[in-house]
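Give me the fold.
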Amino acid sequence: MDRMEKRNGDYALLRDSEDIQLGKFDKPLPCFGCGIGWFSLLLGFVCPLTWYYATILYFGNYYHKDPRERAGLAASAISALIFSIAALITIAVLLLKYSFS
């Protein structure tokens, strides 16, 4: 049962050690506890399209639902950018190589 303590005419609620109320961010993250962003980052090395999915979530402000997701989604967005630049450079080199052959 909650107890009240009187201080300077105001009452303050004392928390009972047995009455644990879980906060909004105390529940585990989805995707095996590491969050969608970090899971997408790891899975992106097998299937890079998951980086683009996480990028869409990042720019769609998905992390406002749970701020713990922000770092993983940002890492996936950066990975998608690096992969896109590397793919464009590879395609450009291959096109130039075969156009002069």
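The chain has a mean pLDDT of 82.
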